[in-house]
């Protein structure tokens, strides 16, 4: 495994983990502000928070070299994407999820996790 790719993978995982933790805190501590920005998410709020938690757990598992963490991250990303589609969030914002999934898959492949 090439060392630069391993470093990039770990940086990506740390950024993802940071984003999920900040997102979870934002969802829980500033729920009204979040729902004011995205009112369509309200019926799926618990699922959306759960998807962020699953994605964060997957990132932690991958940082500890557990291969199943990849599948957790993929499940979290997929769930968040479905919630955003159901909530009718603009496609410009939704596109970040498939891009994150592709980057995760490519980096996992380069690091021989898949």
């Amino acid at each position: 495994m090439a060392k630069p790719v391993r470093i990039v993978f770990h940086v990506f995982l740390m950024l993802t983990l940071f984003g999920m933790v900040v997102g979870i805190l934002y969802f829980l501590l500033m729920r009204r502000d979040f729902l004011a920005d995205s009112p369509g998410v309200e019926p799926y709020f618990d699922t959306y928070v759960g998807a962020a938690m699953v994605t964060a757990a997957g990132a932690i598992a991958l940082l500890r070299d557990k291969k199943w963490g990849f599948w957790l991250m993929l499940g979290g990303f997929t769930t968040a994407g479905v919630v955003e589609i159901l909530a009718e969030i603009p496609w410009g914002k939704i596109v970040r999820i498939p891009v994150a999934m592709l980057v995760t898959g490519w980096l996992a492949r380069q690091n021989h996790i898949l």
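The longest helix spans residues 3-29. The helical segments are 3-29, 31-37, 45-63, 68-86, 91-94, 96-110.
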